[in-house]
Amino acid sequence: FNFDWSSDTILRAKWRSQSPIGEDATEGIVYELSGNTYLVKSYSGSAATVNIPATYNNKSITSIGEYAFSNNVILTNITLPSGITSIEKSAFFGCKGLTSFIVPSSITNIGDYAFYDCTGIKSIILYEGLTRIGFSAFHNCTGLTSIVLPKSLKNIEQDAFSGCTALTSITIQSNITSIENGTFNGCTSLISIAIPNGVTKIGDGAFGNCTKLTTVALSIKPSVLTSIGNWAFQNCTSLTGITLPGSLQTIGEGVFYGCTGLASITIPGNVALISGWAFYGCTSLSQVDLPVSVTRIGNCSFQDCVYLKKIIIPQSVGGMGDSAFKGCTSLTIYCERSSDNVSWNPNWNISNCPVVWDYVI
């Protein structure tokens, strides 16, 4: 081009390096300095296979940043270096084509929504050292078939594996103390689950809509489980039985709602409340044993339990909810009381099931 070089001229040049010299890194990766290390901020390339280097500008790369690869439908494989410690929020959100992924043993945190809707992932290996799996981290990973959780894991946030419809097995280690709300909700291929004896709480909807779940193994002795949340096993239609530990104190609303295969249940001796809708629609339920600790039976607790023929109501029951036994067409109710309590809802026996008062075992 034509330029007048007769006068003094200052030239400025700017080089932008997307990949560190000497590293086998994929072009298009953008890095951001965070403290004394780098994180992967974003990816603007078009390669289906991405390799993240261990260093950039002679500093370690320790994190995959928030939304770094989110909604990248081209990405199929990614390799992370062993120095990565955290996969941040929504890092691979919606990467539906991602099929191959190895979580390095250096990872301690998998953030919220990290692999949300990554429908192509079939398996993932999680190593010792991982301490947290975030909220909805693997939600709707419909290709994921199995997963083993490491002993180092301390927290699994709510909905972490919800909607993983191909998941048939999962191993929960003994360090876990709670199963949070919705953790495995909608895992329609899950067949069995063993709850370790250190778990104190099963959250709301934790296993709801797990329609193939046949076995829930709860530690009986010793056990520290005190609470099963609302709708925890809702619509687990293949569940035929479950043994509840003596440590249990709270059974939430709708806990076994729609469990049409559930045939019998024994309520432990520390439970005071049978919450509303707890056994609604359990059409195979033929036996329920209530302890003397029960003081209230909630609304619609046993509604439409059409196969239930007998239930004994202890003297201790001072409250009875609306429509508690509605639609129980085969039921005879045996009450240790001489008459219904003034605090019982007038419609507690709206279906007019036969009642035997002053019943003595």
Task: Characterise this structure.
This protein is mostly beta strands and 361 residues long. It has no helices and 27 strands. Strands 1, 2, 4, 5, 7, 9, 10 and 12 form an eight-stranded mixed β-sheet that branches. A hairpin with a 2-residue loop joins β1 and β2. It is elongated and about 85 Å long. The N and C termini lie far apart (106 Å).
Map the helices and strands.
Elements: E1 29-34, E2 37-43, E3 49-51, E4 55-56, E5 59-64, E6 77-79, E7 86-87, E8 100-101, E9 109-110, E10 132-133, E11 146-148, E12 155-156, E13 169-171, E14 178-179, E15 192-195, E16 201-202, E17 215-218, E18 227-228, E19 250-251, E20 264-266, E21 273-274, E22 287-289, E23 296-297, E24 310-313, E25 319-320, E26 332-335, E27 355-356
Parallel strand pairs: 2-5, 3-6, 5-7, 6-8, 7-9, 9-10, 10-12, 11-13, 14-16, 15-17, 16-18, 18-19, 20-22, 21-23, 23-25, 24-26, 26-27
Antiparallel strand pairs: 1-2, 4-5
Shape: elongated
**End-to-end separation:** 106 Å
Amount of beta strand: 15-25%
**Major sheet attributes:** 8 strands, mixed
Low-confidence stretches: 11-22
Structural class determined from secondary elements: mainly beta
Our count of helices gives 0
**Helical proportion?**
under 10%
What are the defining features of this structure?
single chain, 361 residues, 8-stranded mixed sheet, 4-stranded parallel sheet
In short:
The chain is built from no helices and 27 strands. It is mainly β and 361 residues long.
